[in-house]
Amino acid sequence: MQLRYSFRLYLSAGQRAALARAFGCARVVYNDALRARETARSEGMPFPKTGDLSKQLITEAKNTPERAWLAEVSAVVLQQSLRDLDAAYKNFFDGLKGKRPRMGAPRYKSKRDTRQTVRFTANARWSITTGGKLRLPKIGDLKVKWSRTLPSVPSTVTVVKDSAGRYFASFVVETGPEEVLPEVTPELGIDLGLGHFAVLSDGTKVDSPRFLRRAEKRLKKAQRDLSRKEKGSSNRNKARLKVARAHARVADARREFHHQLSTKLIRENQAVAVEDLAVKGLARTRLAKSVHDAGWSAFVTMLEYKAARYGRTFVKIGRFEPTSQVCSQCGVKDGPKPLHVRVWTCGECGAVLDRDINAAVNVAKAAGLAVSACGAQVVRREAHVVRVEVQDHHRRPVAAGRLKLRAA
Ligand SMILES: [Zn+2]
């Protein structure tokens, strides 16, 4: 399986300038090649070959005054740019032939594109230094915030500058079967709720970590400030950039939280079951916004691929008896309950049921998992509410799996 790992980069002014040159050169070569091919096409000439373009647009161009600056950038980066164009053409032609979904013809890249990228392949002799820096030819040793460990050595790194002006190193790594974890006993049902981010069939209630709540608060404030600024003023532009940065921070913090929680749950349980979110039907209601904000689908996707990677079972259950209508202890269905009813007593067996935990146990049971529906799991007073404590995303990286659950 191929997985993509992204890490934030922190660059010096000199490194930023060198990288800007690499973005620029890669873009120019891409555009020159695109122009050469489009010209050939409009003149009815044969499609120029990549090898010829490489010779003409890179090797020979470096000796001309107009393109001499191409020599300042690793040649491998420029060749990669040609290969990227090849891939764009191939996808376009395959789309026309019906081999894949149709997509537009390759387009010229612009300096003003919000996302700038440059790719270094193994040939470019990039490396990770013993000090943990990313060494790129003709750019330097870049500081990386390693928030996770790479499972294997990647061959390619893509350096990205996003719309908020941040830099990332993105690695694609191949993961093998050696990652399958030793078997464990627990199996788990998860109810993704609104009161808590997730409630587990073992009685654990998981809330968003403090660093995420704080980032969300800052975003709200930035948005309020922006709405108060006069249109067209320079203050408004500053405020807009602030909002963009706050947005990026919330997205980062949320992704980090999802990674940590999903890794922890997959490590500690042999099987994990969730309800299909489409079936859950919340996305169509007024709760849609909070569903969106909670980012459940991103979280569920992580559970799914991590289960595959670590040799665990992942079950997504479809429509079944509504989770809140069935007693997870005796199975009696006693009808719908309004949303404000959080705890009730089963009229049949007398169990005191916590709405969320009851739902999580029902999810596990519907998936055929062996969760024991013992009293402690559904009875509220014995359930322990926990708060997820992770280190601040912006201070120190946390290795995945080091997420601590602490009883509050
Ligand atoms: Zn019952």
Automatic annotation (TrEMBL):
Transposase putative helix-turn-helix domain ranges (all copies): 1-43
Domain annotation Cas12f1-like TNB: ranges: 296-363
Residues that span the membrane, as ranges: none
Keyword Disulfide bond assigned: no
Probable transposase IS891/IS1136/IS1341 domain residues: 170-284
Pfam family, any one: Cas12f1-like_TNB
Coiled-coil ranges from the UniProt annotation: 212-256
Keywords per UniProt: Coiled coil, DNA recombination, DNA-binding, Metal-binding, Transposition, Zinc
InterPro entries per the UniProt record, alphabetical: Cas12f1-like_TNB, RNA-guided_DNA_endo/Transpos, Transposase, Transposase_put_HTH
Record flagged with keyword DNA-binding: yes
Family of this protein: In the N-terminal section; belongs to the transposase 2 family.
Protein name: Transposase
Natural source organism: Streptomyces graminofaciens
Lineage: Bacteria, Bacillati, Actinomycetota, Actinomycetes, Kitasatosporales
